[in-house]
Structure formats: C-alpha cells, structure tokens
Amino acid sequence: MRGTGSLRALLGQDTYKRRPPRGGSQPAGSTATEQRTQGASAPSASCDTSPVQIAGPEAGPCRAAAPATAAAAQTESPAPQGPASPAAGPRSVRCPVCSMQLPPDNTAINTHIDKCLSRGALQKQTKQASIFKFAVAKPPSRSPPQRRSPASAAAAALAAKAAAAAGEIIDMTGAADEAMQGSGSGGMAAAVSMATGAQTARRSWQGPAAAARAAPGASDPRGQQQQQQRQQRGRQLNASQSLSISWSSDRSIRSQGEQEVEQQVPVPQAATGTPSKPQSQQPFQPQPALPTKLQAPAAPPGSLQCFICAVVGRRFLKHDAPCQAGQRLVVEPEPDNPRDANALLVLDSSRVPLGHIPHVVSRHLAPLVRSQQIVVEAVVQEEPLTETAPLLVELQVAMQPAAPSASPGAARRAAAMLRRAEAAAAAQLQQQPQATGERLHSNFLTVLATVERHDGHLLAESERGFIAAYKALPLPSQCLFLRLFQRKGPLFSLASLSSYKEVPDPAAAGAQLAAAGLATVVSADTLAAAAAAGAESDAAAAAAAGIIAPEAADWRQLAGLLTVPELATVLAARRINAAGPAGGASGATGGRSKGGGALRNREQLLAALEAHAATSAAAESALAGWLLGASGPVLRLAAPACEAVSRLQRLFFLNEGHGLSQFLASDLGALQYPQYQVHRTQPAFRSRAELLEYEGALSHAAEMNSALEEEDVEAAEAALQHAWAALDAGVHMQERPGVPDFLQRFHSGWVYCMMATVGVSLLERQQRYKDAVTRLEQLLAGCCCPTRRGEWWIRLSTDLEHLKRPVQSLERAEQALLDQSLSNGDRLGLQRRILRLGKPPRRWKRPHWAQAAQREPREVRITARPLNNTTGLKSRFYGLDDEQCSVEELALQYYASEEGGGWRGVHSEGGIWATLFGLLMWDVLFMHVPDVFRTPFQTAPLDLDTPGFYSSRQDAVEACLARVAGGEAPRLLQSSWEQHHGTLVRCVNWERHSLDELQLVAECIGGPQLAAVCRLLAQDHAGWSGGMPDLLLWRPAQRDAKLAEVKGPRDRLSMQQTAWMTALEGAGLCAEVLKVVEPPAGGRDGKKRKR
C-alpha cells in the first residue's frame, strides 16, 4: 500500500524512549513498566489488529503481552461473531505520531501519517529510524556481561519485542488493504476477519494458553491461508534480521558467540514451491552451540535465495537518484575500485550508481559473481526517508548451472559462501546505529578496564588521575576527547567540530574538557586578556581556567586551520604586503599578487604572514590574535592527557602500530581478526621502572629510524649513543626469570640490541672494524635477541678477518657452532667459513660435517638476451616470446615449455608455502596457550617465532602433520578456507591463490613431503621463514612438484637458500637452481646446460 514504507519506519521506532500521549499526564510515581502496561490495556492500543488500530509507539512492546491484549479485547472491542460489518470496526483511531484522532479510513490514515513524517514530527518523539536497527539478546553462553548499562539491555529487549510486533502489524496492514479493496461490506468483513485471524496466530506464538483465548471468528479459511502466506514472508524477512553482535572485552568468548549466532541464522527457503512449517506452531527454544564446521548443502541450479541487505556509501554520491519501493536495481562487480577488490556496485536501470553492497557481504558474493556461479539483483524494500537514511534492498541471488570444468565441490562451496553472505548481511543490519565517537568511547572503556585489571601496578597518579577525570566527564566530552586524540593536531577549531553527531555542542564539550584539565581553549578575547595581564598570578589563574598562554598559540599552527580564502581575507583586512611568486615583496597589498590577481597559493600567503611576523615581536603576537579572530576559539589537548592515553594503549595492545582504530576497523567489518581465547596470566612489565625504560628505548629507536630515513648520519649516531650507553651498562645482560621467551622482547635491553645491530652496520660501512668487533662481543655476551646471534657471530668473524686476525676469526666461528640459537642458514655459513679458514696448517683434521656442508644443489643453466647487465640492478631479459620480462618470468616460460617439462608454476618466494602452513595448521596456531594471545587484534600467537611454539604444542602439531602426511591436506585446506576466509592472519594470503589451486598444489607436493616442510616451519618459524626457492612448479597430470631458485648472471645463492635446498631434498622434494646466463659473443640463445 502507499503508506507501507512510512508505517515500517514508524513502527520500528525506539519504543522505550517515548513521551506521554499529547494531552495526557503521567501518574506520579509510576514506573516505566507500569506505563507500558497501561499503554497495553488502553482502548486505543487494544485487541483489534487492523491497520486502523495502531496506537503509536507506546503500543509496540505491549503487543507481546497476551493477557493484557486479550483482556483489552474482551473489554473494549469484542471479536465479532459471524460475518463482520463496517460498523464492527473501530470508530476512531489515534495517530501514532501526533496522537490526533482519525477516522477509520486507510487513505485518510496514510495521508495523515505521510504529512506528519514530512513535518519532522517523528524526529521529535523518537530517535531510532529503522525497524531493522534493534538488538536481540545473544544465546546463553560463557560470555561475561556485555559493556552496556542495564538500561541499554532492557532497551534492547523492548526494541526486539517492538520490532516483532511491528512486523506482524505491517503484515496485517497489507492484508487489510487487500481486503479493503473489495466492494461494500464484504471487503470490510474480510479485513476484520483476517485481522482477527492474525491476532489468533500471534497468540499461538505466545503460547498455548494465549492461543486458547483467541477470539472466535478466526477460522475463516481464506483469511487463514492469506495470513499464513504473509506470516511466512514476514518470518523470512525477520530471519535475515535476527542477529545482534556486540563487542566483548574477551575476544574469544565474543568470537564463539558470534559463531554460534551465525550458525543459528535460518537460511530463507529457496523458491522451490515447497511450503515450510509455520514457525508460529513451534515454541521458541534456545538452540545449543553447533559444531564449528559449516556444511552448507549445495543449492540446485536455478534456485533463488533472497535476503535483506543495506546499501552503503550513498552519502558520497554527488547526485540525488530517487529510489522507490519495488524498484529493481542492478548489482555488478566494480573491478576498478581502488579500495576493495571485491566491491559490488548497485545501479538503477539508468546505470546511475546508488551505492555499494557492504564489504562484509560483497567479499563472499563477489568471487561467485566473477566466476559466473551466481547472478545478483536487488529490489528496493522501502523508500529512504532522507538522503542519508539507509537504503534497504532485497538481494535476489540466482544460482547458475555449473560449468563443465567446475570441481565437484564448487556448488557446495558456493552455497557455503552464500550462507556466510546472508549471515554477514543480517549482522550488519543489526549493528547499533552508533556514531564513531561513541564507538571510540565504548572501546576505550574496554582498554581502561583491561589495563586496570592486569597492569594496574604500572599506573602512577598521573594515569589514575586522567582515568578519573575522563570518567567524570559527560559522554559528549568523552567522545570529543577521543575524536581529537585520533586526529592530527595540535590545534582544533571548535567551529569545525560541529559534524560530530555525538557532540551536539562542541563549545560546551571543549569547556568541560578544559575544566577537567584535559585540554585548553583559547579565543581572540582570552588571548588578548592573557597578554594584557602579564603577571604571574594572572597567568596561573588563566591556566587554571583552561586558557592557554599567548606564546602557546603559535600563529603557524593557527594558519593551518584556515582555508586559502580565509587567509587571503586576513591579509586583505590587515593590508599585509603579499609575497610574489619569486618570494619578494610584490608591492601590492590586500592579499594580491604582483599581477594584481588574488593570491590562491597557500605557500605565498604563508610567506606573506612570515614576512609580517618577522618585523617585530608585537607584530607576531598581533598576528596570532588576527588568525584566532578568523578561526574562532581553538582547542588543544593537554600533553599529559595524550601521554596517558598513549601509555594505556601501549599496555593494552603491546604493539606500537595498533590503537583505538583497530576496534573501529573490526567493528565496521573492514578487518576481520581470527577467533581465539585471550588469556593473560602475567604482565609484560614487572614494574613501572621497566615500562618507562622500555618507552625511553622506543623513543630513541624512533629517532634513529627517522634519521636513517632522512640519511642524516650524524643524527643517527647521536641516537645510537643511548644504545652504546645501555650496552656499556649491561642492560642487555639483565635476565628476567619467570618471563616467557615471547615476552622478553618487551624490555629496553631488547630494543637497544636491535639499535646496536644497526649501529654495527654503520661502523662497518665506515670501516671502523675494531669498534664493530667490540660492540659485537658485547651483544653476544647478552641474553637478548637470540634469533640475531647467528648474524652477530658471522659478522664478528668477518670483521676479525678484516683486521688481519684470521686465527681469532676461525676461533670465533668454531665457538659459534656451540650456540644453540643458530638458524640452519647461519650454521651452514659458519661451517663453510671454518672450512675455508681452517686449512692446514691451522687445522689438519676435517670436521665430520665437512662433506654435507660443501654439497651444492643441482643446477640448470639457460641462456637469454639481457636488457641490462649492471651489477646491483634487477636483471631483465627478452623472454621466449621476445617480450621484456624479469628473470623469474623467464624461468616460468622455460619450465612451461616442452623443453622445460611442461610445468605450471608460481613465483611465490615462500608465499604459497606460508599460506599452506597457515591453513593446515590453523587450529594449532590459535589453540589455547596462556599469554600468547593478549589482545583481540593479533594475527598470530606471540610465540610463533620462538622455539617455544613447537615445544608447547608438540602433540597437536604432530597430530595435525600426521593427517597431512596421510593425504588429508585437501580436506583440511577446504575446511579452513570455508570457515575463515578473509580473516587477517599473518601467514595467509587469501587473494593470491584460490582454494582449488591450493588443493591441487598440496596433492602434487604429496602428503609426507608437505608435512615435512610444515614441520620445519613449526619448529623454527623465524629461521625458515626466509630463503624459500623462488618458484613452485607442479604438473597436475603426473601429480608431482618441484622447486627452483632462479639466479641471474651475477647472482649467487645465500647460505639460507642453500640450507633450504638441502632441507627440501631431505624431505623428498625435487629442488634445483636455474641459472640464467648471457650468451657468449657470437653464440646462440636457448642453449641449456645441466650440472
């Protein structure tokens, strides 16, 4: 009907935030529950459920109260016996927006409601704008209480009941309209009959007792049949909207809850013509948690799957494309989207873009659309009330017949992806309409609670004072502080903060921040007053009042807040001479260039201001006041408050690259982190002194990195003095008993050792080998950075050789072989160094490992025409097709040829092996181990690069590798792919390879060989992560594979690459080196030699 969209938006309002009816009064002392009960029993909200019986938002949640509704039905409007007549309907109806009494006529009601909505009356009484934006309680689980107040929880329950009642009322409204279209009293009778039948069905949902109290006259066959059809459509609609995902401080419990909820989402029945059992006959029971593995049945070709989804990104469109209910839209991939490779664009029939399918949904649908397994269309559900209101569409996904070359499991995988897309769409619809600032506030409270619980002993009075001051602020002020902390400052114009919906009055919020000592506010008047006072007492009073000192208002920072026209206006108002393009005075005033035109270049305007400020101190002080007058009051966050937030973030994340933005990215679905149990048993820092020393070391490391990026050697050496001083003081030798190996890195000695490693490189570059030897011996005497010890031993031996001390170089190399922290590549490098330095007469006896250390891998040589032959540059050649290519591309062409063996392959350099390892070992990577998962935003356990990873999970690792060796790798890959596709994991690249390709590669490699490689990565992930051969080659017909390391004419194998070749051969894999050489003068291309 014409007003269905308005009714849907109306009935989905936040019913628990309402005002008393216009003209009525609220009884003194009555509670919210009593008020709702009164609303339920009111005559205007009573039993008759035809569209003219809607009593406004206050009647929404009361529809679930069967006794009250039944009592009202018997008291006010008894159910008609036999055929109904027009007189049996209600005599008047109250508008749910303005409470006006209306005649019981659908056309009049709809017209009146549309006018009320257009006047904005709805926005005055309600806050929530869509029926789909309500929350339902999560299923019972081990989850701790959510971070929401009791009032919020009660509100979520009431909103859920209101939405359920609204869906039924909308269905009844449509039924009554269909009946009203009949002639005379027959149409009205049919409408009343269907309304009574709908009431009976709703009571049957509430329970057998309520169903037994249903009014007579509900057994009309025609009415029951139509009502069941409408209820079935309503349940399918509501099923896709039955999710609510809220954030929990415990990521593991939250993830488990999400998984349980996702598995309980009913998939709308395909359009196969098979009727489903009405859910109104089934009492609601909580469903137990299902197994984590999702087995979706394959959808038959031609079947249609429909679910509701929101279209996002409408606010970024530069046009106003109208949308009407029932309008069909086109959904197609957008391959040129720079932000999302899986973007799905929604267009109207005129090819005008209307927005995008949300990323959490499109990442499941786009691969199927590109592979032509599905065709997607959209149908607008309701016309948006405003330009920024969400556009709700019904996605209609049609399965296509499978291609002849498709794998047997393609249909089942497609069905699983569709199921995940539907669950993601439902979850996205049920997200609370929360502003970014409110999300920041909610997530920051999680950070505060976690830090206070686990690291409270590290907080000083400054941090505790900040926490108390922050929590005492009103919500808008808290949101404003976090908003500004996330932005680049240091100054913020209060006039520019009006776009934050959660901060209705930025000036008041800024004043509250200033009063709490978390910020300072300054305007032109206060700046002039502070400058005029000048006395120390006045300055102290100004500081207490939150007024910044005049010298703190730097005019350069103020100028950065103004636009170019605003800067030009300031120059014109003060008649400041503008600098010309050449940098000199133009002789023109009023912000104009030498040619007389207005200055439009910010650099020129700033140069003019700089020249004016340089004339005198008074001019510079006056310039700050002028700019403040143009920008309005500005706000600066207090430095101690920002330092406290940074420290709290560091304690929570233990990662300098992470912050509150990780919460936002996860909440919005931009980043999907793996599911695991966060479990902290001990802090990373034992004392506050350790924390402060660690922060100081990080600061010095940042200074050194910045200097090296700018190629400022002097500044880098100045920063290195702190590292040298720490080594001299023995900071790197301090042991931390009881602290796990993977938490040892959070220590100042660790940071200084990393800095010293870079410093040794600078010393060697300057040929200061004696100083380098001294520092390397200091590093080797410590207990930090065990994975770097092999590099330190090799460089120490090399530097001693540079100093013409070969005997000491040999002794240090032999001593290094006793170090248990050496990687395989470093050990091989030291062994070869010993064999070279230990010739007679220095050493007469050859070591027992000499033959194995000198073994070289198989080598294949091909000739090719080079494009460049400069040492240090990437080699490029003419390929077999006479096109320019890299040396790796040339190698792939050779192996694909008949002469090379007809291999398929990829240039991965270990990437495909890391993906195979991550997918096969997924359950092992994210199994519960204390302290390895300390935040919800980790992509790998903290101990992955330590020997403790394998030792703490040895049984689980070997059990998984036994399944891989037994040939179960393809099934394990499919299981991990279907359950976790798109999850951000350190080892896995979801975009580079498809599941079919990974399964084929695993079969060609072989189970035992693949298990052997994964065992190496599990035992020493840090040591074996680098040096993997460039190419992985396989032949599907022969089910075999081999690896090849490609080298140009002037390249040679590193020790780590040689160690990998030896290890692969030991695992039963074929590995070789492909050497590309230049043709001799007058020779022919394409000649191959093997060695």
Question: Any overview of this molecule?
Answer:
The structure is a single chain. This protein is α+β, with helices and mostly antiparallel strands and 1091 residues long. It contains 41 helices and 19 strands. Strands 3-8-7-4-5-6 form a 6-stranded antiparallel β-sheet. Strands 15-16-17-18-12-19 form a 6-stranded mixed β-sheet, with helices on both faces. Helix 13 crosses helix 24 (660-667) and helix 31 (824-837) packs across helix 41. The longest helix has 31 residues, at 150-180. The radius of gyration is 36 Å and the shape is globular.
Distance between the termini: 82 Å
Number of helices: 41
Oligomeric grouping of the chains: single chain
Please give the largest β-sheet.
6 strands, antiparallel
Overall SS class: alpha+beta
Proportion of helical residues: 40-55%
Q: Roughly what is the average pLDDT, rounded to an integer?
A: 74
* Shape summary: globular
Number of strands: 19
How many whole angstroms does the radius of gyration measure? Answer: 36 Å
Strand order of the largest sheet: 3-8-7-4-5-6
List keywords for this structure.
1091 residues, alpha+beta, six-stranded mixed sheet, 41 helices, 19 strands, disordered C terminus
